[in-house]
Amino acid sequence: MISIMYNQEQAWERYASRCNMISTLCDKEGTMGSIDFMNKVYRGVLDQWAFRSYRGPGNLGTVEDLLRRYEELLEEYPPKELEALGGIPDDMIKKMGGMGLFGLSVPEAYGGLGLDLWDQLKIVEAVAGLDMSAALAFLAHLLIGIKGIELFGTEGQKQRYLVPAAAGDMIFSYALTEPKVGSDARHIETKAELSGDGSHYVLNGVKTYITNANYAQGMTVFAQLDPEHPGFMGAFIIETAWDGIIIGADMPKMGLKSSSTAMVRFENVRVPVENLLGKPGYGYTIALTVLNYGRLGLMAASSGVTKRSYHDMRARAQSRIQFGVPIETFPLIQEKIVRARVHGLVMEAMNYFSAGLLEHDTEHNPVIETSHCKLFGTTKAWETLYDALQVAGGSGFISTQPYEKRMRDFRVTTIFEGTTEIHSIYPSLFAIGRIAKEFKTRQRFDKWMYLVKEFVMSFAPMKWELRFDDRTLNKAVRLAQSHARTIRRMLIFGLIEYGKKIGNEEFFLRRISTLSMYCFGLLSVLAKISADRSAGRRSAEDIRLFSYFIEEARTVRSTNRHFFDAKCERLISDIFGALS
Ligand SMILES: Cc1cc2nc3c(=O)[nH]c(=O)nc-3n(C[C@H](O)[C@H](O)[C@H](O)COP(=O)(O)OP(=O)(O)OC[C@H]3O[C@@H](n4cnc5c(N)ncnc54)[C@H](O)[C@@H]3O)c2cc1C
């Protein structure tokens, strides 16, 4: 047995050093401070500090005032007209800048509004509910364009770039994706070579699908620094007016038509060394850290369209009479409305909870939690958009109604900032990478003992100091614990059974990620309700909604707790291999 384990472990080590995704995540995790909320949960530990520090937006006065002014702006520039125009006119961009929209997150010291992450997410939720297309100009700028400078910039870089960025005089893009490289971002081909005198880098390469490209005066661009070591990257602040930067025409898209999306070519662009963010080689970490914010932004946008769709469904279902009664009388219609309301609650709870984990330490990477937010939000919101159109019946298909534009605009959210497929395997790969890292640090016999102990411990009861005077809430606690135990068992099993081939076991990885996502959803809503109760806010309505999510999580558990693939999944490779 020990020799089998030894071979497994050697194989694993070889694999771990080759598998970019896992090794990157391990490195990153190892170099950063971390609450590591879900990783602790898998081990039976509930981080009480994190759980108790749940909060929502606090600065509602400023948020509401901004939103009121933004709604007025959209009355002046109706989204449908912007769509027909295929862009945002300069005077509207100026007005957005004047309102402070490009500086929501920028500290006041650099001319921004200095709103915290919770207030920003509240704004994202509301503006996305109104119209995603126009809002993307400032959302992409804030959440990914300038985020690297906010988090990793030197004082000089912040003074030079954040001040005009906050005023809307310098709009930013985030440029990672390339024509040949999307999901496998570690292998981008854009290169930056340090000049002989060490004064500047020479940047060459092509980026594609870059949001804001034709509005931007600045970009955060990611490039390889060492061809021998993919992933050893630099993150550069560049100015689009520099020589050698060619921005293509906006690409025609199915949605988000007033957002600019274009290709950007860099030909021998001289980038001063002062424009490197962080240290050489730190670029990939910066790229992934920034995406945490983008993912929470997408969850907020998902929450916005879900809530908007919920209200549309309710209004339509009350007013539309069929078979002599309002269609809201029918269970199949009620189901859609209830599901939207429940998922809206869970999205909000997951997002604000993750915001707390992220803001606890700006360099901390709650990758599992933000990945769950992105996946849950975008997929559930997409289902809700589908349901809302369905409830509207034939009228939902007519373009004068809001449904088709909303669906077209939202469709891309399951693709950018990590596709649904990547987020279905990423959290479990991260968690397995974490165990593999601990496994590697142990002596040979100890390694074996470690895995056995971890497996056995996954059956042990968990002692969380979490008791409520409510049966539904206690049921949720027990279910979250069952999820956590199963996940731990599956992680250990995966390491032993699949070893170096674990990356190929995507159905297995997806099952773990799905369980983990629901476990995180349960805990986030529990954290929200606990916080509400502590603050004397009523929770009866939320608990009623939560009871539906608990049953959904129970169903998810029964279909995802299996170690081995289901028959359908096993058939796929056979059938695929035999396709004519
Ligand atoms: C409107 C729009 C705006 C964008 N804005 C930006 C931006 O501002 N900055 C930027 O850098 N990028 C941006 N992007 C790019 C976006 O992030 C990428 O399109 C996305 O990361 C996916 O990459 P890809 O298109 O190359 O797809 P690919 O990586 O080629 O993926 C194709 C398909 O294969 C699947 N796939 C890939 N790997 C795996 C795997 N291991 N297992 C299972 N399935 C897999 C994917 O999930 C997907 O379904 C934007 C894209 C669009 C459409």
Ordered list of secondary-structure elements with their pairings:
Blueprint: H1 2-18, H2 20-31, H3 37-42, H4 48-52, H5 60-76, H6 79-85, H7 90-99, H8 117-130, H9 132-145, H10 147-152, H11 155-167, E1 172-175, E2 191-194, E3 200-211, E4 218-224, E5 233-239, E6 245-247, E7 261-272, E8 276-281, H12 283-319, E9 321-322, E10 325-326, H13 331-360, H14 367-391, H15 403-410, H16 420-440, H17 444-457, H18 471-498, H19 506-534, H20 540-560, H21 567-577
Parallel strand pairs: 1-4
Antiparallel strand pairs: 2-3, 3-7, 4-5, 5-8, 6-7, 9-10
Helix pairs in contact: 1-16, 2-16, 5-7, 5-8, 8-9, 8-12, 9-12, 12-13, 12-14, 13-14, 13-19, 13-20, 14-15, 14-16, 14-19, 16-18, 16-19, 17-18, 18-19, 18-20, 19-20
What does it look like?
- The chain is α+β, with helices and mostly antiparallel strands and 580 residues long.
- It has four domains: 2-31 and 427-573, Butyryl-CoA Dehydrogenase, subunit A, domain 3 (Up-down Bundle); 60-167, Acyl-CoA dehydrogenase/oxidase, N-terminal domain (Butyryl-Coa Dehydrogenase, subunit A, domain 1); 172-280, Butyryl-CoA Dehydrogenase, subunit A, domain 2 (Beta Barrel), CATH 2.40.110.10; 285-420, Up-down Bundle (Butyryl-CoA Dehydrogenase, subunit A, domain 3), CATH 1.20.140.10.
- The chain is 59% helix and 10% strand.
- The strands form three sheets. It has a four-stranded mixed sheet. Strands 2-3-7-6 form a four-stranded antiparallel sheet, with helices on one face.
- The longest helix is centred in the middle third of the chain and has 37 residues, at 283-319.
- The two termini are 43 Å apart.
- The model is unreliable at 1-33 (pLDDT under 50).
- The structure holds flavin-adenine dinucleotide.
